[in-house]
Amino acid sequence: MPKVTFLNIDRTVEFESGKLPYAEHGLPESLLDIAINFGIQLEHACGGSCACTTCHVHVKQGDTNLSPATDDELDRLDTAADLTLHSRLGCQAVVKGDVIVDIPSWNRNYVSEGGGSMNLGDAIPPAKNLEHKPKPPGDPDEGGAAPVPVS
Ligand code: FES
Q1: With a 6 A CB cut-off, is 35 part of the ligand 1 pocket?
Q2: pLDDT tens digit string along 24-48?
Q3: What's the pLDDT tens digit per position in 6-29?
């Protein structure tokens, strides 16, 4: 029975391989799948399809108890902030044995599932003009030229 410890919340969970209900995000029995099954918040903006880096975790112990990273995962990780030699995407790393991971601090403030989005605080610029309504094509205020009639 593999055990996964999430250091940032000081919680260890245990599951029987092949018996975990699939949470429909990420690979079955991936760190993300396990986190969701046990109600642990791990952001996954792309739904676990290796298309973002919000599920980035640092593996503190047990790298060899995870499935090897694929080229797709490594390519995606190259775009992650705070990359380390022990970085993995939670949605792609399938757990085969005991693992200890840490969710980077910048990735902990979020509202996951249930309709929220990551809280990036001041990193997100305010919306430009919520009252903006599209103007017709050719409007000089939009920088377009007036339409030319076709004969
Ligand atoms: S959730 Fe997007 S890459 Fe893992």
Answers
A1: no
A2: 899 999 999 999 999 999 999 999 9
A3: 999 999 999 999 999 998 899 999
The DSSP 8-state label assigned to residue 44 in this structure reads -
The CA R_g of the chain, rounded to the nearest whole Å, is 21
By CB atoms closer than 10 A (0-12, 13-18, 19+), residue 63 is: middle
Q: 77 with 55: CB under 8 angstroms? A: no
Q: Choose the residue to mutate in 41, 50, 118 for probing ligand 1, maximizing ligand atoms within 8 Å of C-beta.
A: 50
The architecture in CATH of the region 3-119 reads Roll (3.10)
Domain ranges in the chain?
3-119
Strand partners, 61: 100
